[in-house]
Design goal:
The protein is of the alpha+beta class. The protein has two domains: about 1-55, 2-Layer Sandwich (Alpha-Beta Plaits); about 60-210, Aminopeptidase (3-Layer(aba) Sandwich). It has helices at about 30-40, 70-80, 90-100, 110-125, 165-180, 190-195, 205-210; strands at about 1-5, 20-25, 40-45, 50-55, 60, 85, 125-135, 135-145, 150-160, 185-190, 200. The strands form two sheets. Strands 6-7-8-9-10-5-11 form a seven-stranded mixed beta sheet, with helices on both faces. A four-stranded mixed beta sheet has the order 1-2-4-3, covered by helices on one side. It is globular, with a radius of gyration of 17 Å. GO terms for molecular function: leucyl-tRNA--protein transferase activity. This is Leucyl/phenylalanyl-tRNA--protein transferase.
């Protein structure tokens, strides 16, 4: 595993270890982060660790045409149960993602350093949020990095305060991205929740072809 100084470039992807860890160190400048996502690399670590950079193989992705919408979700969408907005309150969305409790996870990987970095990416137009509302109450949301030139959206995290709220927002987002010509949503690593929505694993080398 390679140690990165602020001035160092990322090593070749092929240098990841068996769990997909490529390097540690470096920084979270906008230039570093956009370069990372454009190469299929993302940061993931907690407050007790240095910055860790990952590129797992296989890679969990969702092709918009493979989106699965259950009958129960179809009914919620038909009834317009929630209201969905985009980039209205990025800061509150990422803060709620940081505070969300997740099974098998202690603490959060969205550290203060990460939060500051992604707020800057949002200001620059790279980090996007989805807000899900029940009346005037924010009940769910998600955020990610939109590589518009590559037609790829890199999902980062989501939260929910009401049943199905984050899923509702995710489905809206996938349909919106499909209409904009996005070819793939990067989901990074496998979860049952993402698989239930139609995401699946592909070889990393295939994933990287979409980023060229």
């Amino acid at each position: 595993m390679i140690f990165l100084r602020p001035e160092d470039d990322f090593p070749p992807i092929e240098m990841t270890n068996e769990v997909g860890l490529l390097a540690f160190g470096g920084d979270l400048t906008p230039q570093r982060l956009i370069d990372a996502y454009s190469r299929g690399i993302f940061p993931w670590y907690d407050s007790t660790q240095p910055v860790l950079w990952w590129s797992p193989d296989p890679r969990m992705v969702l092709f918009p045409e493979n989106l699965k919408v259950s009958r129960s979700m179809q009914q919620l969408l038909k009834k317009e149960t929630f209201r969905v907005t985009y980039n209205i309150d990025f800061k509150t969305v990422i803060k709620n993602c940081a505070e969300a409790r997740r099974e098998g996870q202690q603490g959060t990987w969205i550290t203060g350093e990460m939060l500051k970095a992604y707020l800057e990416l949002h200001r620059l137009g790279y980090a996007h949020s989805v807000e899900v509302w029940d009346g005037e109450e924010l009940v769910g949301g998600l955020y990610g990095i939109y590589l518009q030139e590559k037609r790829v959206f890199c999902g980062e995290s989501m939260f929910t305060r009401k049943s199905n709220a984050s899923k509702y927002g995710f489905i809206h987002l996938v349909r919106k991205l499909a209409a904009e010509g996005v070819q793939m949503i990067d989901c990074q690593i496998y979860t049952d929740h993402l698989a239930s929505l139609g995401a699946g694993e592909i070889p990393r080398e295939v994933f990287l072809e979409y980023l060229k």
